[in-house]
Design brief:
Elements lengths: L13 H17 L5 H11 L3 H20 L6 H17 L1
The structure holds zinc ion.
């Protein structure tokens, strides 16, 4: 009988809220519109969080490529390809 086993709640650990922080401020960071505190927190987080670093690198790279090609938006295919490469790099690290 497992009736007295209580499900472990998926608590929002500190790491998760930091991941959320990255996603929330991703574009502020890329546009250099972050407060120094936020930027410091973001840098400190991506230093040890591969998924967030990959996400940040992806957007940074896409932004650069889009700027260079003068296109309004990066093609979805390109984003997927870059994301795959970055993910591989992050895993191999
Ligand atoms: Zn993270």
């Amino acid at each position: 009988m497992n009736a007295d086993i209580t499900p472990v709640p998926h608590e929002a650990a500190e790491g998760e809220s930091d991941c959320q922080h990255i996603l929330t401020h991703l574009y502020e960071y890329l546009d250099s519109e972050m407060t120094p505190d936020d930027e410091h927190r973001m840098r400190a987080h991506v230093a040890h969080c591969s998924p967030c670093l990959a996400e940040l690198s992806l957007e940074e790279l896409v932004k650069k490529l889009v700027k260079r090609s003068c296109a309004e938006r990066a093609p979805a295919e390109l984003r997927v390809r870059i994301h795959e490469q970055i993910t591989v790099m992050a895993v191999a690290d």
